[in-house]
Structure formats: structure tokens, C-alpha cells
Amino acid sequence: MSQPRTIVIAPKRGFQLIDWRELWAYRDLIYFLVRRDVKVRYVQSVLGFLWAIIRPLSTMVVFTVVFGRLAEIPSDGIPYPIFSYAALVPWTYFSSSLTAATGSLVGNNLLSKVYFPRLIIPLNPVLSNLVDFAIALSMVGVIMAFYGIAPTAAIAFLPFLVLLMMLTASGLGMWLSAMAIQYRDVKFMLGFLSSILMYAAPVVWPASLIADKFPEHGATLRLLYGIYPMAGVIEGFRAALIGARPMPWDLIVPGAISALVIWLSGALYFRQRERFFADIF
Prior knowledge:
With about 280 residues, the protein is mainly α. The protein has one domain (about 20-280). Helix content is about 65%, strand content about 0%. It has helices at about 20-25, 25-40, 50-70, 80-100, 120-145, 160-180, 185-200, 210-215, 220-225, 230-240, 250-275, 275-280. Helix 2 (about 25-40) packs across helix 5 (about 120-145) and helix 4 crosses helix 10 (about 230-240). The longest helix has 28 residues, at about 120-145.
């Protein structure tokens, strides 16, 4: 008769930022949580997945009227509806993922009941929101067809921009989720922070305004502005999908470096704090 198998959970020796083998071992849990989030989001919903399109589409209508017609903000010669919608698709994903990741640890009963890599929790909304993102992105093709705009070869860079968008959302999500479980002020700060980040990003206005307003220092200011990763992501989405301007590498490159720093520092801070989650919870 075979002996019963014993599993011993012991502290790890040495430092490891992320245990990728452990995350892979818990891939079934990741799949279950992502699937659960997608199903719960639209349970007993009449419109179902159409909400993924309605949110950015309705915001596009408001922005078109307020900023495109009344304020007459320039849009690089692009019809303002497609100009704003192409930016709202990545921004809506980023904002939704950041909000969900920030509050993912607070009130999560699994923290004190069973062991699993805690990093799975804030990463879960970053993955599950990709479903909504893909649905909303498909609407871009419909709007482009309506305005007679054809995609260009720059669309090949879209996967890289999506990865950069996910890196930024997950990095800030790890930072804020680890802080929110101890400092509940983070929850109240998030709405305020999200509004600031949106208007700081070129969602309702083009990044070309920087060079137009400050022609002598435009190139330097754009490089500094590129430190904000979502600036390069949003302008890159417009270039990749609409092709009115070349890919803004002067925004994307510093944004990619900044996103990597945010992600690595977020993972480091999360790993340092996760041993206290159950006690604080």
C-alpha cells in the first residue's frame, strides 16, 4: 500500500522577484478566476458583452460634442469620433484594470484561508479585462469603415502596444493593491487619480499640441511626456489603427522603459508586503 503524499509549504530561500514556475503551476486557478470574472460581470445582464462597446462609445459621443464641437480641440485632421474612440479603447481597459486590481485584495477571503501565489489576485483583472478590450477594439474597424479609413502596415505594432498597456496596468495595480490593503485611503484616492491620469493622457487632445505650443522645446518636452506610458500607448494606437501620423517612437520608447520600471518596482513592493496581507486583512 502506497504511503500518503505530504506537501510541505516552507519559506523560500534567497530572493526571487516573481516565481514564474509557481505561477505556471497555478495556471488552472488563474484560468478559473479569469473565467469567473468574465461570467460574473455580465450575469443577468440584458445587453451582456455589448456593455464593453457601450461604455467607450457613449464616452466618445460626449467627447465629440464637448471637445470636438464646442471646444474645437484639434484632432490631427482625423474625424473626432474615431480620434477619440481609438484612444478610449486602451484607456478604458487601463482604467478598468487599475480600479479592479487596486481593490482586489481588500475583502478577499482567500487570503486567510488557503495558500496560492498572491500575485494572481491583482493580475486577474488585467487578464479578464482583455475580453472587454477585444470586443471594444473590434468596433474600431466599424467606425473606420464608416469614415472610409483603411488600416496601414503600422498595425503590426499593435501587439507591442497592448503588451505595454498591460505592463503599465499590472505594475500600478501591484503597487496600489498592496497599499490599499493597509491604507484604505487609496480607495478614495483612486477616482481622483484616475481623472488626473485621463486628462494627462492624450485622450481628448493630440500629443502634437506639445510641439505646436512649445516649438522651441517641443522635442524635449515630448520625450519627458513619454515617461507617462499611456501617452505612447494612446498615440501609438492612433498611429497603428488610423495611420494619420507615423508611430510616435519618441513617446513609446521612454514609455516602455518607464512601464518596465513601474512593473518591476510594483512586483518588488508587492512581494515585500504580501507576507503581511493575511495579518492586516
